Amino acid sequence: MSSLTTEISDQSLREASAWFARLHGDNVSAEDHVSLAQWLAMRPGHREAYEFVTETCRLAAHAQAAANRDLWQTKLPPKRREPAVSRGGKPRGTGAFRGMGTRQALAAGIVAVAIAGITLLLQDRPAARRYETAIGEIRNVALEDGTKLVLSGATTVDVAFDRHSRALKLETGELFIVVGKDPARPLRLRAGDRVIEDVGTAFDVNMHANAVDVAVGEGAVMISRQSATNPADTATLLMGQALTYAFDRPLGAPRSVGSQQVGTWRVGVLTYDQVPLEWLIADLNRQFDGNITITDPQLAAMSVTLTLKLRDRDTTISTLEKLLPIHAVSQHSGAIELVRTKS
């Protein structure tokens, strides 16, 4: 039996169930088969949904037949009863299937059993979605629990919610989160080799090549490994605190930041406090087309503290040249290389 994957939407499964019942009724027509073929070709998940419902119904029918056979064999021969007859002299249906043809009633019963099983599966199936942005794009996303996401440029985040948990995974880029209140389902964001758990908050997560920076604008978060074996390798950040952790290294101590400065990139302002210059450049590369590079390792590691208003790429680079001992060199490819200014 094919597995139920997260690519099949709940709506597709419901529509597939309706198509199964329709195609197994008494009055199915050639037009019905044509319409089904059109529905199957409409979206990639439709065929998988229909195959899943078909197989589920087949198993349900097989199980029902086996149960009826076992029940018949364990009973004594019953006294023969005449079927109920309508005024027209035809056997009369009962319950929800009254008025249906035999095949249609059978199909409806099987589908009802299958839908009940599918519904149980859907309740525990994480609703998985991926959100992405292009370079220079800022995207606002409102999730069904009230959580609000703001994605910076060139950012990818996966979201999977179910009845018991809310899970996010930051693949690349920077993300600002205002968490919806749901004490029964803690929100956990995986970034790098650690999990950031919300304790009712608004916070920012910036993923770099080998490190992750977390800053809290409101409330608190707890940072830990997904399968922590050392309880000491956890940290709790309160409002106005930030922490940078490197992959596969112990957590350091939190540092103080202005809570009002957390996530200011959402309004076109970048704020840095003693971070490597290469981090600033990585942020700029998420905002502008045309690569900005640093080939000098010492210059890339230079610590910077500044606030930068984003404009167009060339104007922003000109501002950096005034604030830092750097010079921009244009390349034939359209890229810009930053080099240290000669003293």
Break the fold down into its secondary structure elements and pairings.
Blueprint: H1 10-23, H2 30-42, H3 44-74, H4 102-124, E1 127-132, E2 139-142, E3 148-151, E4 156-161, E5 166-178, E6 187-191, E7 194-198, E8 202-207, E9 211-218, E10 220-225, E11 235-238, E12 241-246, E13 255-256, E14 269-276, H5 277-287, E15 292-293, H6 297-300, E16 303-309, H7 313-323, E17 326-330, E18 336-340
Parallel strand pairs: 5-6, 15-18
Antiparallel strand pairs: 1-4, 2-3, 3-5, 4-5, 5-8, 6-7, 7-10, 8-9, 9-12, 10-11, 12-13, 14-16, 17-18
Distance between the termini: 71 Å
Order of helices and strands: HHHHEEEEEEEEEEEEEEHEHEHEE
Which CATH class of the largest domain?
Mainly Beta
Rounded mean pLDDT is: 81
Assembly type of the chains comes to: single chain
Number of domains: 3
CATH architecture of the largest domain, by name, is Sandwich
Q: Describe the main β-sheet briefly.
A: 13 strands, mixed
Percent of residues in beta strands? 25-35%
Structural class: alpha+beta
Number of strands: 18
CATH topology of the largest domain: Jelly Rolls
Helix % is 25-40%
Q: Would you identify the regions where 5 or more consecutive residues have pLDDT less than 50?
A: 1-7, 90-100
Describe the 3D structure.
- The strands form three sheets. Strands 1, 2, 3, 4, 5, 6, 7, 8, 9, 10, 11, 12 and 13 form a 13-stranded mixed beta sheet that branches. The chain has a three-stranded mixed beta sheet with strand order 15-18-17, with helices on one face.
- Helix 1 (10-23) packs across helix 3 (44-74), helix 1 (10-23) runs antiparallel to helix 4 (102-124) and helix 2 packs across helix 3 (44-74).
- Strand 4 and strand 5 form a beta hairpin.
- By secondary structure, it is an alpha+beta fold.
- The chain has helices at residues 10-23, 30-42, 44-74, 102-124, 277-287, 297-300, 313-323, and strands spanning 127-132, 139-142, 148-151, 156-161, 166-178, 187-191, 194-198, 202-207, 211-218, 220-225, 235-238, 241-246, 255-256, 269-276, 292-293, 303-309, 326-330, 336-340.
- The protein is built from seven helices and 18 strands.
- It has three domains: 10-124, no CATH class; 127-262, Jelly Rolls, CATH 2.60.120.1440; 268-343, Phage tail protein beta-alpha-beta fold, CATH 3.55.50.
- It starts with 9 loop residues before the first helix and ends with a strand.
